[in-house]
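I would like you to help me understand the sequence and structure tokens below and explain how sequence relates to structure.
___
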Amino acid sequence: MKAFVELARPVNLLFGMLGVVVGALVASGTGVVDHQYPVLFGCLVVATFMAGGNALNDYTDREVDRKNHPGRPIPSGRLRPKTVMGFSAGMFVICMAIALLLDPIATVIAAVAAVLMVSYDLGLKHRGFVGNVTISLLVGMLFLFGGAVVGNPLPTVSLLMLAFLATLSREIVKDVQDVEGDADRRTLPKAIGIEQATTVAAAMVVMAVALSPIPVVFGLLGLGYLYAVIAADAIFIYSITRFKDPARASTLLKYAMGVGLAAFIAGGLT
């Protein structure tokens, strides 16, 4: 049982479920308390979805993990590859079964996300920038799904865009950091050079900052969002000045994304 828990990566599942709650909060404000069951089902969809995706990732990376992560369930011999594949398939089936109980838009988002996740694990993750875009889109769709769960995805579109841009920037920065070790991936830094890739990452950050006032401009969120997002934007801009140190820049982007998430929570409650 412990091996299956490790396979699912429970900490990641908790963050995924938090994303659903944030999306629902942004979409319905304090009225989210009237949507307890849809939000609960939405959290279960994301938890099973992520567990299935994490297991599939371990399955496809099992040979690489024998060297890089020998303690994981498959290379350590605690679980057989076929067992892990069965677990992954089972999680995706449960995910879609629960998704059918939700708003039709939420069901469609879950289905599209499942296709993207499987495509990523089976090949897109080795294609560098295409994989970066896929993961960034999946992160953004998490919040869109949260809004759809409560029947109001429109307010979360801005959150999807901001999460996508911020995540894509960080993914590129991480590829710059790992450029020497990425022998089997055609990453953006390898394709166009480190300096040009860094410029693209910085452009993603600038776009995210430029778009950050949209929720207030269109009256989607309260002023609590605006006050908090200013702090997030400041960290985002500061991170650009540290792009020559990819590890430091990646950490700063992570902090900025956390503050940005708090800004959306604040906006949903005000």
Remarks:
- The chain is about 75% helix and 0% strand.
